[in-house]
Amino acid sequence: MILITGATGNLGKATIDFLLRKGVSANNIVALVRDVAKVEELKAKGINIKIGDYDDYTSLTKAFVGVEKLLLVSGSDLEKRGNQQENVIKAAKESGVKHIYYTSFERKNETKTSPIHLVATAHINTENLIKASGMDYTIFRNNLYLDILPMFFGENVLTTGVFLPAGDTKAAFALRMDMAEAIANVLTSEGHENKDYAFSNTENISVPEMAKILSEVVGKEINYVSPPVDVFVDALSDVGVPIEYVKMTADFSEAIRQGEFETFKTDLEKLLGRKPTTVKEFLTQVYS
Ligand SMILES: NC(=O)c1ccc[n+]([C@@H]2O[C@H](COP(=O)([O-])OP(=O)(O)OC[C@H]3O[C@@H](n4cnc5c(N)ncnc54)[C@H](OP(=O)(O)O)[C@@H]3O)[C@@H](O)[C@H]2O)c1
């Protein structure tokens, strides 16, 4: 039995669909769902549903009975997810899960000086707890999703251009669907015990290069401006963008500028058996 957490989210849902496409019987898949109102789509596919919340330890131990492989999709609550993920690991161990898989994060700087220290810390602690648990493990070091580019660019990008304090450092953004497909490939094949896989694209592209690609895609010059962080924060706040979102975007842009997401690892390509979706293919899908 394979249990997928975050099964109502983008990555978890897509992983389940790839498992089904690969011939895994719906009977052998369990979806952990915290919100009863969201079970219908999964139920219609014949997936077993277990109601559970990362904050509710007992719900987790009940849900994990009989599970051999457990995919822990990292939580979306940045403040709480360290403790939540610890709950999942302990409950998995207590319930006799053999192999735990975790969607972690690509990074280089593991110190407090990282601009995305809060994001990195929970992932690093979770990886350490998993590795010390005695269960077999596989860690997926997810690079930035290509899917978040339209949010970084903003809805008026085709008129205003790209305004992001990310400098001209390259990064290996990869498509979330490609990551889900690779996770399903790993869950359904052997030999992945105690491995870390980098889920990064095989091309590294800077934001100014992305603006050039976007210009080609839409047939119009799209400028790129990389402002100082304080100018960026003031400009977006002045037009009413919520400050938490502005700060998060600024922090990730700074991390890109510092090279946190530039990698030359080919695990994703190997696990997919093909080249990952490129920035050009993604931007063409979204903007053409
Ligand atoms: N690499 C990147 O660029 C990037 C970008 C964004 C996020 N991420 C990380 O990757 C994860 C997966 O991405 P995604 O796009 O699939 O995110 P998503 O669509 O927000 O899905 C998150 C899933 O986690 C579930 N969840 C959250 N808190 C929970 C809790 N306390 N108990 C049980 N389930 C809980 C959500 O349930 P509900 O449906 O009930 O909310 C949802 O199913 C995110 O959660 C985040 O950690 C990575």
Notes on the structure:
With 288 residues, the protein is an alpha/beta fold. Strand 5, helix 5 (117-132) and strand 6 (136-142) form a beta-alpha-beta unit. The chain is globular. The protein contains 13 helices and eleven strands. It has two domains: 2-142, NAD(P)-binding Rossmann-like Domain (Rossmann fold), CATH 3.40.50.720; 144-173 and 201-263 and 277-288, UDP-galactose 4-epimerase, domain 1, CATH 3.90.25. Helix 1 (10-21) crosses helix 8, helix 3 packs across helix 4 (81-95) and helix 4 (81-95) packs parallel to helix 5 (117-132). The chain has a seven-stranded parallel beta sheet, with helices on both faces. Strands 7-11 form a two-stranded parallel sheet. It starts with a strand and ends with a helix. The structure holds NADP nicotinamide-adenine-dinucleotide phosphate (NAP).
Helix-strand blueprint:
Layout: E1 2-4, H1 10-21, E2 29-33, H2 40-44, E3 48-51, H3 57-63, E4 69-72, H4 81-95, E5 99-105, H5 117-132, E6 136-142, H6 149-153, H7 157-160, E7 162-163, E8 170-171, H8 176-187, E9 195-199, E10 205-206, H9 207-218, E11 224-225, H10 229-238, H11 243-257, H12 267-272, H13 279-287
Parallel strand pairs: 1-2, 1-4, 2-3, 4-5, 5-6, 6-9, 7-11
Antiparallel strand pairs: 8-10
Bound molecules: NADP nicotinamide-adenine-dinucleotide phosphate.
Residues 5-6, 8-12, 34-35, 38, 53-55, 73-77, 84, 103, 142, 144-145, 148 line the site of NADP nicotinamide-adenine-dinucleotide phosphate.
